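fyi for ur records
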Amino acid sequence: MATLHKGNLPPNFDGQTLTVLSIDGGGVRGIIPGIMLGYLESKLQELDGKDARIADYFDFIAGTSTGGLVTTLLSAPDKDNRPLYAAKDITQFYLTHCPHIFPRQNCFEEIASALCKPKYNGEYLKDLANKLVGDITVSRTLTNVVIPAFDVKLLQPTIFKTTAAKADALMNAKLSDVCLSTSAAPVYFPAHFFETQDFKGYTRSFNLIDGGVAVNNPTVLAMTTVAEEIKKKNPVFRNFKPMDCNRFLIISLGTGAAKEKEGYSAHEVSSWGSLQWVFHNLKTPLIDIYGEASSDMVDFYASVLFHAQGFAGNYLRIQDDTLTGTAREMDNASEENMKKLVEIGNMLLKKPVSRVNLLTGKYEVVDGEGTNEEALACFARKLSGERKHRLAKQAQY
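which gave:
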């Protein structure tokens, strides 16, 4: 077994493959991509040694909401300048902390929250984020991150990126603030306010909510970040062209969706007023719809783009669209439901690779591509090969 070189993934100056990991939003359902990541990292460790970590293999890790939290855990440095969390520990992180992030409420408390205030006060998540990453800023991540939020004062997305943070101190926010912002889902958590300051004393204010209202699946956002850096003539990307699918290797992880997209009938919702759209039968229809629509549209676009250029194999989307009952809820952190999500994640590994049908919106099995487990193992070999190629090039300089 080879010994893994510790440290960041070397820059890709010679124009080989750019590697991207994308993680959707979805609250407690982040358990599902956590299991995918644990398996992927285990295969990388088989190839390169027990110290291998996800951040050692990806040029960009993008995450929205709960995906932004996972992105931070995978890329924030610990005291030894290695990733804060191994991927295998992500699931346990959720099992330990989600019951406190999403404390159970009775029916009366839920209704009262819907009418008067956010469902949860977010204090546990705030304390947890501060404890985990403290004053660590976006510029210090071990690989490039892309984490979206939405500014309710400016009415536009705010994207936190390592590339931007290194260039502009006003965008170099604390990762704790970024985590609280990208996960501040309307109805569930309060909006998050903070300020940054540059070396000249200029400040910038942020009034942010969950990035999922704009982009719940950040796959294409990561690709456009590369395009932006190409436009800026960043030397790391000098040999790349925007949206050149031949040069991208992308793993996009969903957090699960409802079985057959079963939602509400037009007859049912036609009589709804504002309250029902926000809160109906202890569910949040409008929030759920925004998340589903955002994730699906990005997947549609990415699928078309990679298919059209003839490189469908460079894009792996793993999503379970068969969730039913409590598994569909983003904040059900009961022991029973979290156990169910772990089972769903493990079963998803065994399911065949599927791609979205661009006409029906449903995921359909792709013949000849094996299971998600096998596809992740294949991607692990590609990621390991790319890293070794760069290390060899680096040794020549």
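The longest helix spans residues 372-396. thats all i got for now
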